[in-house]
Amino acid sequence: MTERRKALDVLAETPPSDGRAEIRGLGMPPELQERYGGSLAIPLRTDRPTVVANFVTTIDGIVALGGGELAGGGLISGFHEPDRFVMGLLRALADLVVVGAGTLRGSTEHRWIAEHVHPASRAAFAAWRAEMGLPPRPTTVIVTGSGDIPVDHRGLTDATVPVVIATTPTGAERIRRAGVADHVSIEPLDGEGPLTGADLVALGTRLGARLILTEGGPHLLGEVVGSDVLDELFLTMAPQIVGRGSPGRLGLVEGIALSPTEARWFELASLRRSADHLFMRYVA
């Protein structure tokens, strides 16, 4: 699909305003603000780290077409350049960028930093993080229960990107035997079950994070939603329908099934458009 680099069209905008004292995103460089069609600021909680998620989905709710390279969002978005720009904005805001082991295995060279997905905005992203008093790059957090991850992945070997691997005691031992770079730290969690949303918040608190961004996969998002700690969802809808008939095709949230009385309801804070793609921001 043809890349489009004009400003996103703002169809609706109701910036979150809940009286929180601290807002992340102030001082946004003019070139980023012009491209986004306005400012992007996220209120920070005072009781725990704020948790936001960013996903791209088809019209029929599919976020991954299968395993391996089919798990990436690029195929879902049609490699739509504005989607990568918004992804970069959110990474530029984050203290931690969290991905599951399946997302890690679904790529070979990816690094979960803003300039990787939108290199044209590298300088503006760096200036924005400096203005906000943030380190040059967010910390990548890899979530794995088994510890079965490619330790030679580019996202784990670039010493300029801090990395934390959140895993079980068994997984931690497996990773130590495999060996990781010196800049990678291993955080064993209690128990052998999957990391929950509460675990993620506790980890973020220990790491001093104020804003956690999760990008996948849908099972990890399921744990976050199940623990009811998702504060905001940035969701890009790509104009395609793919169906669910093939094994491995995953929806936005996997692993939980909330009843109607337990459903998590969100408010639409903004709606943007680029060609036939819609960019939605929901707040809890």
Verbal overview:
The chain is of the alpha/beta class. It contains ten helices and 14 strands. Helix 3 (81-93) runs parallel beside helix 6. It is globular, with a radius of gyration of 18 Å. It starts with 8 loop residues before the first strand and ends with a strand. The model has no long low-confidence stretch (mean pLDDT 92).
Quickly list its features.
two-stranded antiparallel ribbon; globular; 10 helices; alpha/beta; 284 residues; single chain; ten-stranded mixed beta sheet
In short, what is this structure?
This protein has about 280 residues and is α/β, with parallel strands linked by helices. The chain has ten helices and 14 strands. The strands form three sheets. It has a ten-stranded mixed beta sheet with strand order 1-13-14-11-4-10-6-7-8-9, with helices on both faces. A two-stranded antiparallel ribbon has the order 2-3. Strands 5-12 form a two-stranded antiparallel ribbon.
